[in-house]
Amino acid sequence: MIHDPYDHHISRREAVARLSATAIGAAAIGVGAYFFHDRRSVHAAAPAIPDWRLPQTGASARTVVARGNDPAANVRRLITALGGMNKFVKKGESVLIKPNVGWDRLPDQGANTDPKVVAELVRLCKAAGAGRVIVADISVNDPTRCFTRTGILDAAKAAGADVIYAQQLKMVAADLSGYSAGMEVFAPLLTANRVINVPVVKHHSLSRVTIGMKNWMGVLGRGRNRLHQDIQRAMAELGAMFRPTLTVIDATRVLMRNGPQGGSLADVKQVGAIAAGIDPVLCDAWGATQLGLDPNSLGFISEAEQKGLGRSDVKLITELGVA
Q1: Are 48 and 175 in contact (CB under 8 A)?
Q2: 3-state secondary structure of 131
Q3: Region of residue 249 (phi > 0: left; psi between -120 and 50: alpha; otherwise: beta)
Q4: How far is it, in rounded angstroms, from Cα 80 to Cα 126?
Q5: For residue 217, which of 186, 193, 257 has the smallest C-alpha distance?
Q6: Greatest distance between any 2 Cα atoms in the chain
Q7: β-strand 94-99 against 318-322: which pairing, if any?
Q8: Are 256 and 233 in contact, with CB atoms under 8 Å apart?
Q9: What gap in Å lies between CA 17 and CA 194, rounded to an integer?
Q10: How confident is the model at residue 120, as a pLDDT?
């Protein structure tokens, strides 16, 4: 069995031991894809994480939800309701789309972002004039199997994206703080003009949920286990450091139990809903409700709201209804 760095609460001493073991040989740990990178030391003058947000007013500043059986159609309806992708992506810009591709699972198992959601976002970015669209993530299981079995590799490529994963992802230093201090991120993140965060909604055995803020763990390199020491605070810290242009929450299928990896179709609920907006806190709050949770019961949402990252009142969301 491949060790799952997202699924075990470990002591600080264990975390240090694992980091030491990694320096000797990642194979002995068996942690999966986030060791497939150039292990250069993080230097003191690490570059800052860009702020990918654009000022938005009117319809484009809303958070909206679309429901229906066709994930691609739901994405189109959402982006149209927000004023069109050209409100977020300008001609010639490079766009990074960050889905959750952590697990060697099929789409029906609900452990990863739906490939139709990713592909439609790629098409809309290309239609808005994006010079390059990259789809990237650091998988937990074998990255080739993850990107292939999820359907994201073929769907994103067919839509016109460059799909980058595993050894292709160069890791670089970044100015990170809190529990992420000293870690590296994958290089395309720092060079993208715009970033779209596209998590799936699912249960998590430690943090209770995986939605948007936790999805940023997938850009981090070696050492991210230590975020589990205080996962709720660490998730809020990630939300403060990574400020996407747009957040798109995939609740086409929701893994209600036994996350984050899942496996049994009995644990998956067919919801057929997607949310999108520029408020990452509100998007995550909506995602929490799809799991039957009160957003205010989740520490990372409360802390992110206190940090001024957004609002958690789901009454602010506009429902477009069922197509």
Answers
A1: yes
A2: coil
A3: beta
A4: 15
A5: 186
A6: 54
A7: unpaired
A8: no
A9: 37
A10: 99
Amino acid at 237: E
Q: Which residue has better confidence, 183 or 26?
A: 183
Label the pairing between strands 200-204 and 246-255.
Answer: parallel
Confidence of residue 44 (pLDDT cuts 50, 70, 90): low
**C-beta separation of 226 from 12 below 8 A:** yes
Domain 12-322 in CATH 3.40.50: yes
What is the C-alpha to C-alpha distance for residues 234 and 23, in angstroms, rounded to an integer?
A: 24
Q: List the structure tokens of 247.
A: 């957040």
Q: What single-letter amino acid sits at 47? A: P
Q: 135 and 176 in contact (C-beta within 8 Å)? A: no
**Beta-bridge mates of residue 203:** 209
* Contact call for residues 121 and 196 (beta carbons, < 8 A): yes
3-state secondary structure at position 115: helix
Give me 17's structure tokens.
């031991």
Would you say 276 and 117 are in contact if contact means Cβ atoms under 8 Å apart? no
Residue 200: beta bridge partners?
250
206: nearest Cα among 255, 249, 250, 260: 260
Q: What DSSP element (H or E) covers 306?
A: helix 299-306
- Measured between alpha carbons, how far is 188 from 182 in angstroms, rounded to an integer? 18
End-to-end CA distance of the chain: 42
Cis previous bond, 260, omega within 30: yes
CB 156 within 8 A of CB 115: yes
Average pLDDT over residues 58-72: 97
Which percentage of the chain shows pLDDT scores above 90? Answer: 85
Sign (positive/negative) of CA torsion 204, 206, 209, 213? negative
